Each structure stands twice: as structure tokens, then as C-alpha cells.
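User: Sequence recovery, please. Input:
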């Protein structure tokens, strides 16, 4: 272990959220001590997610600020405690789902993503926009060795939520992806590897995102307002724009499904019932289960999924978030502490 990995000094740098409308602030904090069952991690990389924008904007509430954001964490295990002494020295990923009760009807029926007492990383508990973090060992995933940490980080939310959204599409022959950012970029690769034909819908005139999509193997890329080149078996709306839902619905073949992949979206405009008729479905996906995580992280190196990452130093978390908001990069922003 080199000096940079030794938590001997006792303090760490962290970016904290203090309230809606206030910029993230860099602070010095004590390095957290892991409870029984928790791992102490040296953060290697933490990818930024659109949910982080919803959190700083107050569209998703942080009940108890100040809070360290960040829920796509790859870290090296420094202390495993009773939870995982064998994990020390290895890398794990920490996702959005940070804790569940294990007792409720959802937890006991394979739907822990809906646990009403669930606690979420970087929202209800401190996350990875810091040099160190602690995480419940039961909710961490081993990182596939093929991935450098910064390449693996976007898999932990964009990848896992994207994967859950893809599963909710059933077995589509054709798939529309509305909003071609980090999640769509990952899940397009998984879908294409499964023989699904992918159509990418982006903001009008976003040539860069359209090129990103076709470079990954999308058969067609165009503006969201354009009609789909053929009726779609399913569509996933990743962009937080409610207007896209009726557009995606109209692009579906009978029996098709629109999956809304985000945690927040602007209001969905009304639409004629005939657009829903013929057993079309609109549904959301919420959070992830650990089973989703294990499946996706086993699948990713087989595809193999490649992530496009834009590294930022930790203290530039605010700039990374604004660049995400303005669509200034394709793929994912990843903070490197
Ligand atoms: Zn529960
Ligand atoms: Zn996320």
C-alpha cells in the first residue's frame, strides 16, 4: 500500500451538498470508521449520474444534508472487518441501493428495489465524492478485473439501471432509446449483443450523440421528434423529459412497452387513448436489486461493454455536473479523487 492509500492522516477531502441551490463544497472530513458489516474503501473513481443533478436541484430530496453525493463508486477495500476480511486489497463497486430492511414484503419477494425503508448511497447515506467511503459489504459488488476503475464506475448506475430497464422491455426485436447518454450508451451494447436492433433518439441536432450511437452499432439515429423508421417493440426513455413519453408510445408496435428509466421526469403531457390501445404499456423502473447488479456485472465483460468516460478531478464535481446538464460530453463524467 502506498502512502496515498493509507488512511493514517485521519482526514479526507470530500464534496458535500448543503442545500438546494448551493454549489457542492470541498471540505476536509474525518475518514469514516466502518461499522460491523461495512467496508472502508479508498475511492478510485466515482461516476456522476443524472440523479445527482436531480438531488442538487431538489427534484429528489436529500432529507438530511450535509451529504456526500456519488453512487457509482469503485474503491479498493482497506478494511473488511467481520464482513469481508477476504475482500481487503480487492476492488468493489458501490451502487445506489445502499441498504434494505430485508423483512418487508418487497425485500422477501425479490423486489428489494422497492423496499420502503431502503437507503440510497449519496442521498440517505454518504457516497463516493470523497477520497474514502464506507459501504455495507452486502450491497457491494466485485468489479470485473478486465475493467480499470474509471471504466467500471459508470456500470454501477448507468449500467445497472439501464440493464433493469432493458429487462423490463421483455424480449424486443427492435428497441428505441430516447436520450443517448451514459445509460443508453451502455445498454445499446448489451442489446445489440443480444441481437436486438437499436434506434437512437437524441435532442434535435445533437450530432455528437447520434454519432456516438451509430458508432456503438445503433442502426439509426435521429431527433426524438422524428418518427421511428419502423414500429418499435420497446422503447426506454432515459432523458428526464415527459414530452418524450407520448412520442415513444406513438413509436411502438401493438403490445410494445415504454420504460421510463429515470428517477425524475418533467410532467407527461396527455395523449389520446388510441396511442395506448392494443396493449401498449408505459412503466417505470425504480432503483436496482442486487441480483440486477450481479447479472449485469457478469454480463458486461462478456459483451464486452465499453464505457466512454470523461475524467474530472474530485474538486471539479460541480463542473462535471454542469457539463452533464448542458450535454457537453458523451458518455460519463467520472471523478478521480
Ligand atoms: Zn424492505
Ligand atoms: Zn444514478
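Assistant: Recovered sequence (337 residues):
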Amino acid at each position: 500500500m502506498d502512502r496515498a492509500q493509507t488512511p493514517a492522516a485521519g482526514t479526507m477531502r470530500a464534496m458535500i451538498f448543503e442545500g438546494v441551490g448551493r454549489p457542492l463544497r470541498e471540505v476536509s472530513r474525518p475518514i469514516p470508521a466502518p461499522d460491523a458489516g461495512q467496508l472502508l474503501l479508498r475511492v478510485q473513481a466515482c461516476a456522476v449520474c443524472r440523479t445527482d443533478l436531480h438531488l442538487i436541484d431538489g427534484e429528489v430530496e436529500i432529507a438530511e444534508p450535509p451529504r456526500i453525493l456519488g453512487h457509482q463508486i469503485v474503491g479498493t477495500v482497506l478494511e473488511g472487518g467481520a464482513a469481508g476480511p477476504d475482500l481487503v486489497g480487492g476492488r468493489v463497486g458501490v451502487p445506489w441501493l445502499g441498504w434494505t430492511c430485508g423483512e418487508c414484503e418487497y425485500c422477501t419477494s425479490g423486489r428489494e428495489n422497492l423496499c420502503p425503508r431502503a437507503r440510497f448511497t449519496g442521498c440517505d447515506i454518504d457516497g463516493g465524492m470523497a477520497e474514502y467511503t464506507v459501504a455495507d459489504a452486502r450491497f457491494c459488488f466485485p468489479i470485473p478485473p478486465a475493467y480499470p476503475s474509471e471504466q467500471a464506475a459508470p456500470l454501477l448506475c448507468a449500467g445497472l439501471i439501464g440493464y433493469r430497464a432493458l429487462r423490463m422491455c421483455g424480449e424486443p426485436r427492435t428497441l428505441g432509446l430516447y436520450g443517448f447518454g451514459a445509460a443508453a450508451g451502455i445498454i445499446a451494447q448489451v442489446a445489440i449483443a443480444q441481437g436486438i436492433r437499436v434506434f437512437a433518439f437524441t435532442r434535435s441536432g445533437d450530432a455528437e450523440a447520434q454519432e456516438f450511437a451509430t458508432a456503438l452499432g445503433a442502426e439509426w439515429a435521429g431527433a426524438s421528434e422524428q418518427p421511428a423508421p419502423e414500429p418499435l417493440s420497446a422503447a426506454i426513455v432515459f432523458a428526464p423529459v415527459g414530452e418524450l413519453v407520448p412520442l415513444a408510445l406513438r413509436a411502438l408496435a401493438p403490445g410494445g412497452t415504454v420504460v421510463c428509466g429515470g428517477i425524475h421526469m418533467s410532467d407527461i403531457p396527455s395523449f389520446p387513448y388510441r396511442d395506448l390501445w392494443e396493449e401498449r404499456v408505459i412503466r417505470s423502473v425504480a432503483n436496482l436489486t442486487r441480483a440486477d447488479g450481479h447479472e449485469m456485472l457478469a454480463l458486461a465483460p462478456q459483451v464486452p461493454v465499453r464505457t466512454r468516460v470523461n475524467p474530472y478531478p474530485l474538486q471539479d464535481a460541480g463542473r462535471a455536473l454542469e457539463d452533464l446538464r448542458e450535454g457537453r460530453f458523451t458518455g460519463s463524467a467520472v471523478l478521480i479523487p
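The two ends are 17 Å apart (CA to CA).
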